[in-house]
Specification:
Elements: H1 8-29, H2 35-41, H3 43-70, H4 75-103, H5 109-141, H6 144-159, H7 162-170, H8 175-183, H9 187-202
Length: 213
C-alpha cells in the first residue's frame, strides 16, 4: 500500500491479551490459589472474555470480509483468512469449557490447569500467526478506507464496555501506544477515561490476588 496503516490497536490488543493469559496461568498453577474460586469471581477473567469477544467479532465482521474482497483470485492468501477464522472458532469452546469447569460444585484444579494451558497455547499461537502472516498482508493489501471501517467497528465493539476495556487496553502500554489510543477519543471520552475510568480500573483486584486457599 502507498500509505502505511496504523496497526497500533491490533498490537495493543494482542499485548493485553498476552498479559491476561499470563495472569490466568498464574491463577491456575499457583499452589496458594484455588483457581475455581478465583475465576468464579475474577474481574480479570470477565474482562479478558469481553475484550477477546469484541476483538474477534470486529475482525470476523469487518476485517476479514474487507480483506477477502482485496484478495479475489489469490487462493493461497484467501486460505490464510480461512485459517484465521478457524483459529478464532477453536478458541471459543475452550473458554466455554473453562466456564463450565468453574461452575461445577467442586471444580477440579487439574482440569482447569489443562484447559488454561490449552487456551494459552491456542490463543498465543493464533496471535503469533496473525502477526507474522495476516498483519503484513493487511498492511500490503487493505486500503485506508477499509482499515478505517474496521477501526470504527472495533471501537464500537469495545465501546460497549469502554469504562473498563479502555483502561484495560492501556494497562502496561508504552507511551507512544497510549498516546495513539487516547488520541482517538473525543474530548468528553478522554476526560472520562483519564479522570474516572483509569483510576477505577486501577483499584480493581482483577485476578483476586488476595483470594487464597
Amino acid at each position: 500500500m502507498s500509505v502505511a496503516l496504523d496497526l497500533t490497536v491490533m498490537y495493543a490488543m494482542h499485548d493485553a491479551l498476552r498479559r491476561e493469559l499470563a495472569h490466568l496461568d498464574r491463577v491456575t498453577t499457583a499452589a496458594d490459589l484455588d483457581p475455581g474460586q478465583v475465576l468464579a469471581t475474577a474481574a480479570g477473567w470477565t474482562l479478558f472474555k469481553k475484550a477477546l469477544r469484541a476483538h474477534h467479532r470486529a475482525e470476523d465482521d469487518a476485517l476479514w470480509p474487507s480483506l477477502r474482497e482485496s484478495l479475489t483470485g489469490r487462493p493461497q492468501d484467501l486460505a490464510l483468512l480461512e485459517v484465521m477464522e478457524a483459529e478464532h472458532a477453536a478458541i471459543n469452546p475452550v473458554i466455554r469449557a473453562i466456564d463450565d469447569a468453574v461452575s461445577d460444585r467442586d471444580p477440579d484444579p487439574l482440569r482447569l490447569g489443562q484447559l488454561s494451558d490449552a487456551l494459552t497455547r491456542g490463543l498465543a499461537g493464533h496471535l503469533k500467526h496473525e502477526e507474522e502472516a495476516a498483519l503484513p498482508l493487511i498492511q500490503r493489501e487493505l486500503t485506508a478506507r477499509q482499515w478505517e471501517h474496521f477501526s470504527r467497528v472495533h471501537a464500537q465493539r469495545v465501546d460497549e464496555d469502554a469504562p473498563l476495556l479502555l483502561p484495560w487496553l492501556l494497562d502496561g502500554a508504552d507511551e507512544l501506544t497510549a498516546d495513539r489510543l487516547l488520541a482517538r477519543l473525543s474530548a468528553p471520552e478522554y476526560a472520562a477515561c483519564t479522570t474516572r475510568w483509569i483510576p477505577a480500573y486501577a483499584a480493581l483486584d482483577r485476578w483476586n490476588a488476595r483470594v487464597t486457599t
